[in-house]
Amino acid sequence: MELDEITISRAILSSQMNTLIDCMELDVAVVGAGPSGLACAALIAEQGIRVGVIEKKLSVGGGMWGGGMMFPRIVVQEEGRRLLDRFGIRSTPYQDGYYVAKSVEAVSRLTAAACDAGAEFFNLTSVEDVMIKGDGRISGLVINWTAVEMGRLHVDPLVMRCRYTVDATGHDAVVARLVEKKGGDLKVRGESFMWADRAESRILRHTKEVFPGLVVAGMAANAIAGENRMGAVFGGMLLSGEHAAGLVLDRLKK
Q1: Does residue 34 sit within a domain?
Q2: Is the pTM of this model over 0.85?
Q3: Which CATH number does the domain housing residue 41 bear?
Q4: Contact (Cβ atoms closer than 8 angstroms) between residue 190 and residue 226
Q5: How many structural domains comprise the chain?
Q6: pLDDT one digit per residue (tens) for the chain, 254 residues
Q7: Alpha-carbon distance values, 221 to 58, 75, 120 (Å)
């Protein structure tokens, strides 16, 4: 069959533009496609909830993708190993309580799980503002192409309406900082120094609704709380994504 370039272009445009239009109204917007965001999106979408994942970079995976210092391996402690099993990510024991997994496989499996569950991905897309109206809660995200942000171009954005937002943007805590910057009742303390055990043991207590309509997960949760960072151990990230999903699902039922 002879390939028609125009047909190829139309197929891409019509498919993605229709998806974007359909996702102008979401149940849940997960901002950031790192390990906590991917796990969260997969677990929420499995319940038939309409989920969109917004990622500013070209690729997904966040810090997990590069493993530790570009060695494509990650460590997960005993508490988080069940989520590796849950998503079909193979691991090998290193010593008591420590398991090693391949970072590329981990990201691929998590991404596939989110896709299989029905989550839609919008990469190369940045959140530049939030929508808050009379009820004082986040009801939408103001989005633009990441290239517009990088080029410092004056291009007006579009808006996605959502019932809940999950900030899984890692160390930057992008959505939370936007709320803080615009005068919302939210303080982002910024992450503290490296202390893996403390950071991992406390991340679940920091994974919560920090502003009406905004749940934080992963390193964004620790950054908001002023908690420590943990490096290339990812059990806490996965557990935080699971916990965030549970919080959102509970709130959507009310």
Answers
A1: yes
A2: yes
A3: 3.50.50.60
A4: yes
A5: 1
A6: 788 999 999 999 999 999 999 999 999 999 999 999 999 999 999 999 999 999 999 999 999 999 999 999 999 999 999 999 999 999 999 999 999 999 999 999 999 999 999 999 999 999 999 999 999 999 999 999 999 999 999 999 999 999 999 999 999 999 999 999 999 999 999 999 999 999 999 999 999 999 999 999 999 999 999 999 998 899 999 999 999 999 999 999 87
A7: 23, 20, 23
